[in-house]
Design brief:
Low-confidence stretches: none
Helix content: 40-55%
Distance between the termini: 37 Å
Number of helices: 10
Mean pLDDT: 92
Number of domains: 2
Radius of gyration: 19 Å
CATH architecture of the largest domain: Alpha-Beta Complex
Structural class: alpha/beta
Order of helices and strands: EEHEEHEEHEEHHEHEHHHH
CATH topology of the largest domain: 2-enoyl-CoA Hydratase, Chain A, domain 1
Strand order of the largest sheet: 1-2-3-5-7-10
CATH superfamily of the largest domain: 2-enoyl-CoA Hydratase, Chain A, domain 1
Amino acid sequence: MGELRAERDGGVLTLTIDREARRNSLSTEVMRGLLDALVGVGDARVVVVAGAGEKVFCSGADLTGMADDATGLEQHEGRGLLVQVVLAMRACPVPVVARVHGLCLAGGMGLAMGCDLVVASSDARFGLPEVDLGLWPFMVSALLARHVSPKHALDLMLLADRIDADTAWRMGLVSRVLPAETYAADFEALVARLAGKAPAAVRLGKASFAAVPEMSLEAGLEAMQAQLSLLATTKDVEEGIAAFFEKRPPRWTGR
């Protein structure tokens, strides 16, 4: 069995880092597997990123996997895989959801922040311990600066404290916190709801949301007007309006 499990259940594609003995750390095999899966989602409606077991979502880079005989260029390119994974999450046409339980540390926080939604169990803990190893979370900091205030970001990186899920939610690192006692069932229900949303609207909406911050206000408004006009031509909009008036669940086709 490989280090990344890909399982399909209806419209949900779940990618599980299967390295529980290594605290679900990010090996080259895991990151290449994530890349391949993210660019080949097919007709999936949602992608879930998870860690095996219940103790650790992801502990970051696999420090034991840094070969002593690897050249500086090889190590640099290996670190770049996380960059590629995060960019692939952004480009993925469907929502990518992090299923965070237990510990979420270092590059694991980068992996979670790269997802569109982060749904944490109330027993989850987050932290950036790099400075205590003489390192610095450089790539994670690029994401962190887009989610939390500068003061919160530097507090996390300089002090290396672990924070609980509620604190992470208040900072803006987490989308939702679900009770640990019912987390599995609650998460499954939430993802099923997400998978049931209008595919055309979700795909166009996600891409547009990512593009807007890079535009001026005027350009952003004009681009969103164009996207709305495009979406209005789809069969999904026609079906959604018909279902509303007929008081029935919509039957989405993604067209």
